[in-house]
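re: ur question from yesterday

yeah so i grabbed the chain u mentioned. its 62 aa long if i counted rite. heres the sequnce exactly as i have it in my notes:
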Amino acid sequence: MFEIPTEIQWIVLCDYIRTFAQIRFCLYNLYMSGGFLFIEIKSCDDQLAKHFYIINAEGELL
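ran it thru and got these structure tokens back, copy pasting raw so excuse formatting
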């Protein structure tokens, strides 16, 4: 239940957060399940624009 991201997942997450800020998206949900890191973002300008990312334990975007 309280899983911790791997080091590579953490590095990939930090890179994505910088990118999200540059394109005016904000992180609104982040959680781990089964070794996968789930990231949900939404646009700062358009409430209907939302994206969902999954990063596996090797740091690959699925």
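noticed a couple things. The chain has one helix and three strands. also The radius of gyration is 12 Å.
anyway ttyl
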